[in-house]
Amino acid sequence: MDSLKKIYCNCRRATFLIEKKQIDSIRFNEHLELSFHLVCCPACRTYQKQSHLINRSLRELITGNIPNEPVLDEQFKEELQQKIIKQLDSE
Amino acid sequence: MHSRKSSGFTSTHLIDPHKWVARYADYLYNYALKRIKNEELAKDLVQETLLAALERMDKFEARSSEMTWLTAILKNKISDVYRKKLAASPDVINISELDPFFSQQDGHWIVKHRPVEFEMEPEEPERQPEFMEILQKCMTKLPNLWFAVFTMKHMDEKTTGTICHELSITPANFWVIMHRAKLNLRACLQKNMN
Q1: Mutate which of A6, A8, A15, A34 to disrupt the B interface (most B C-beta within 10 Å)?
Q2: pLDDT at residue B89 tops 90
Q3: Nearest residue on chain B to A61, judged by CA atoms?
Q4: Are B66 and B15 in contact (CB under 8 A)?
């Protein structure tokens, strides 16, 4: 019984499975293990909720329109343009 | 040094390097900057990408667009940066030993690291910009390798196999890194939002 409790109440393992599940699939027994853990562990339920939020937000950060997107300065662009022309001419 | 273009001439007719800077430089810069939090390095990568592309114009295939092709070259350069960072950071190897979040005995959360609800509601529209700003700041605090893997996975949606291959890490290490990166990122958010 003690060893069973150890397995089901391990938050390190539960959070690991939460991460793995979001990226790959987890096995059926891992799924059961996680569900069981989440029922009795409010801290890991909070973790799961926030972990999902973080992934959603990161995707948004990449795909969304960021106001004031940084642009290259004109001098850098001009110099790069000259380098390209020089290299084209040398071919 | 420069390869002659004679044989590839027919396949380069859709390429116009004179317009690359005007058309793609800002796009490539943003692409790099999102993945590498360093403006100078991102600029260097844009330059390296365009100059490298010039050298291999004969490899350009007309069925892909210029932008896709240039982005692919930039992606490879970014992976190179990640690989170099990886080679320079021994923090990877000992990753499983340092574990401040959980008790060594039973794997429970250590009390001060236990997740609690964020005090502000991050998905409320008026709070969201603030949340995104904190998230970005916390991302930059992740150690090199964690940042690289996390970025490749969540921004580029690469497969686990591809990432392991590109960075020369084992799948077991990959999972440890993803787990640890998220634990750190979440802890940073909690610290800065409550």
Answers
A1: A15
A2: no
A3: B132
A4: yes
